[in-house]
């Protein structure tokens, strides 16, 4: 996981478009780690990236979307405590939420063991 973390945090300005695609691939590998029972370390790392601004919001949005497509209830309190902040960032989830509330974000929130009504906006990106 530390190798993937270093690769995600690397910056190569001259290869910006290619790096976004590579970082998406690295996120796919992190999602695989998540499916191999490394849930809390992976989600905690992505949460840290959101707070620090080291990962573009579009990549975090991709991560959230992919995770929501592979998980299902019941959700542990520990998982929701680290995943929920990603869903409370409007810049990340606004394009994932539908008016009909039948989108994966709304369905997750409906099943969440502890919900927070507070929405957070990020200062980054």
From TrEMBL:
Subcellular location per the Swiss-Prot or TrEMBL entry: Nucleus
CC terms in the record's Gene Ontology section: NELF complex
Main localization category: nucleus
GO BP: negative regulation of transcription elongation by RNA polymerase II
Alphabetically ordered keywords of this record: Nucleus, Repressor, Transcription, Transcription regulation
Protein family according to the UniProt entry: Belongs to the NELF-D family.
Protein name: Uncharacterized protein
Species annotation: Amphimedon queenslandica
